[in-house]
Amino acid sequence: MLDGNIDTLVIDLAGVTFLDSTGIGTLVVAKRICHSMGVKLHIRRPNPFIARLFAVVGVSDILGVPIPPGTVSGRLPQPRERGVTQPA
User: Fold this and answer.
1) Could you tell me how far CA 12 lies from the centroid of its own chain?
2) Could you tell me if 30 and 10 are in contact, meaning their C-beta atoms sit under 8 angstroms apart?
3) Where are the membrane-spanning stretches (predicted)?
4) Measured between alpha carbons, how far is residue 54 from residues 1, 16, 84, 85 in Å?
5) What does the alpha-carbon distance between residue 2 and residue 47 come to, in Å, rounded to a whole number?
6) I need a surface site. Which of 34, 43, 54, 64 has the fewest CB within 10 A?
7) Which candidate, 43, 40, 39, 34, places its Cα nearest to that of 13?
8) How many whole angstroms from its chain centre is CA 35?
9) What's the whole-number average pLDDT of the chain?
10) Are 53 and 65 in contact (CB under 8 A)?
11) What is the spatial distance between Cα 65 and Cα 51, in angstroms, rounded to a whole number?
C-alpha cells in the first residue's frame, strides 16, 4: 500500500510515436510541478524522433533528455555578462 510519499516519477516514452505541443507542454509543466514538490521526474526511452523534437523546441535540458548527435538545438543562447569577453 502506498503512503502517498513519492520521490521519483518515471515516464517511459518507448511506445510514443507522436507528440504535439500540448504533450510537450504537459511534460514541461509536470517536470516543474515535480521539482517544486521535491519529486524527481525522469523521461526515459524517447525514440530518436521525439528526442530530436525536444532538442528542436528547446526543452531537452528541462526534461533531462540528451540531444541526439547532429541535432541543432532550439535552446536560446545565454546572454553575455557585462565585462566578460567570449572566446572567438
Assistant:
1) 13
2) no
3) 6-29, 49-67
4) 35, 13, 31, 30
5) 31
6) 64
7) 43
8) 13
9) 86
10) no
11) 7
